[in-house]
Design brief:
Blueprint lengths: L6 H12 L4 E4 L1 H7 L8 E4 L3 H7 L4 E6 L4 E6 L2 E7 L1 E3 L11 E3 L3 H6 L8 E4 L3 E4 L3 H6 L2 E2 L5 H7 L2 H13 L2 E2 L1 H9 L9 H12 L4 H7 L1 H7 L20 H10 L5 H9 L4 H4 L1 E2 L5 E2 L3 H15 L4 H12 L10 H8 L1 H16 L3 H4 L2 H16 L13 H6 L6 H15 L7 H16 L4
Parallel strand pairs: 2-5, 10-11
Antiparallel strand pairs: 1-2, 1-8, 3-4, 4-5, 6-7, 8-9, 12-13
The protein binds adenosine-5'-triphosphate and magnesium ion (MG).
The site of adenosine-5'-triphosphate has 10 residues, from helix 7.
Length: 448
């Protein structure tokens, strides 16, 4: 292995070996290490049956994580380590999970049930890599290939179709052509996958190295899980501003965003309302008036159905809502204040990707967005007043000067903030205080 295997993991393998059992690292950690990616977790497979595994760790706490499928978690030196008995899968009756599993003493049989050649490699500290299906060669060729017949493997478990797309994007690998054809033929079966797993796979796909390329290659599979996207496919954009149809524009925008989950989702969904908003001039020119609000509504529906966390839905729908807002030096501070620095930064990333995916004479405006984003960062660095906490006066000071706590105090602070942000007042303690006191006396005279 290129990366040092953590001590407790090696210790667990040794313990199983000392108990007379075979034990290996397996799956994602062997693949990632071979590819030069630091593994994020290590899975162990063993010939020991779960009870025998427990006997090897009699002084440690073990948890029956997935005992029916042979998986135990062992707590060793503060690390939780998953150890799974070699197994083969029983019949797949629901195109998703084996009805039952059989334990086996054969590593080869265990590797054979795994989905892709790159995921079917094992490693042992003394004998090194076990690669029975050409996983290393496929990794070298950046190829996702099924272990065995693609038709059979995708028939067994529809989740593998989404995993193939996910790995293709995350690793920037191609999908071997027979596998691709088999996936396409069985695409409708992906609806059998639980919504939580669909969401996990889509999130990983979107934050990978090549989401746009993968989606361009397999749009119909994506439409099985996100049918509301389908009207975007081949939707025309005939105007001087555009050089791509809506689908290609969307994929270009997606490609030009950095791998931030919200920005990537927003790039995919920013124009999803356009097909509903489309109108044509007599000469065939297209318009999409009001598409921003429709996109926002559809994006919210899609993300809610996917059970994305509320905060994530809020962030993505705000990005979609404001993707077309023209922000310039004049209203920059208002927008920074409205969205806060982190979301504003994400909006700039989305806007630059969107702008850059227009016709060349529009795409050049990307440089204006970059300049604006730079200016926003400078403002934040230089401590510009962007929120109530930046204001030179606070509620306590106003109370000391005659205000009582309540709605009018809050309104006054907001009023002062707006005056400062819009440039009518300096963020100066004395000036703001006298403005507030004046406002209070007018309030008492019934003028507010
Ligand atoms: P990562 O953890 O980076 O998401 P992984 O390949 O480790 O990727 P896991 O879900 O952790 O994915 O699964 C561990 C291993 O189990 C895989 O490498 C693969 O060998 C096998 N595996 C997982 N899901 C399936 C499946 N649906 N069909 C067949 N084998 C699978
Ligand atoms: Mg894993």
């Amino acid at each position: 292995m290129r990366f040092p295997v953590p001590g407790p993991i090696l210790e667990a393998i040794n313990r199983l070996n000392d108990g007379g059992h075979e034990a290996y690292l397996v799956g994602g950690c062997v693949r990632d290490d071979y590819l030069g990616i630091r593994p994020n977790d290590y899975d162990i497979c063993t010939s020991a049956y779960p009870e025998q595994t427990k006997a090897c760790f009699s002084n440690e706490k073990t948890i029956d994580t997935g005992i029916r499928h042979g998986t135990l978690t062992v707590l060793l030196d503060g690390n939780s380590i998953e150890i799974t008995t070699f197994r083969t899968d029983g019949p797949y009756l629901d195109r998703r999970r084996p009805d039952h599993v059989f334990f086996t003493l054969s590593l080869a049989e265990d590797l054979e049930r795994r989905d892709f050649t790159m995921n079917a490699m094992a490693w042992h500290p003394s004998s090194g890599i076990v690669d029975l299906f050409g996983g290393r060669e496929d990794c070298d060729n950046k190829l996702i290939r099924c272990v065995g017949s693609p038709a059979k493997r995708f028939n067994e478990d529809a989740l593998r179709i989404l995993r193939a797309l996910r790995f293709a994007s995350v690793l920037d690998f191609a999908i071997e052509s027979y596998a691709l054809a088999a996936m396409d033929e069985r695409k409708s079966s992906v609806k059998r996958v639980s919504i939580e797993r669909i969401t996990t796979e889509l999130n990983l796909l979107l934050t990978g190295l090549n989401p746009a390329g993968v989606i361009r290659q397999c749009p119909r599979i994506l439409f099985e899980v996100l049918p509301l996207l389908e009207p975007m496919y081949h939707c025309p954009q005939r105007s001087v501003f555009h050089c791509y149809d809506l689908w290609e524009h969307t994929l270009h925008a997606l490609k030009d965003t950095p791998p931030d989950l919200s920005v990537r989702w927003a790039a995919l969904l920013h124009d999803v309302g356009k097909p509903d908003a489309i109108t044509y001039d007599a000469d065939g020119t297209t318009h999409f008036r009001g598409h921003q609000a429709i996109s926002t509504r559809i994006a919210g529906k899609i993300l809610t159905e996917l059970k994305q966390p509320t905060a994530v839905i809020k962030e993505i729908t705000q990005l979609v809502k404001y993707h077309d807002e023209r922000i310039g030096p004049d209203n920059l501070q208002q927008w920074l204040c409205k969205l806060g620095q982190p979301l504003f930064g994400k909006l700039m990333l989305l806007q630059r990707a969107d702008m850059g995916s227009h016709a060349p004479h529009v795409a050049v405006k990307v440089k204006d967005i970059d300049a604006l984003a730079e200016r926003a960062q400078e403002m934040a660095r230089s401590g510009a007043c962007l929120s109530l906490s930046d204001l030179a006066v606070d509620g306590r000071l106003l109370v000391e000067h005659g205000f009582s706590s309540g709605p009018f105090l809050g309104e006054t602070l907001q009023y002062l903030l707006q005056r400062v942000i819009s440039g009518f007042e300096k963020n100066d303690r004395e000036a703001l205080l006298s403005l507030a006191v004046k406002r209070l006396s007018e309030h008492r005279q019934g003028r507010h």
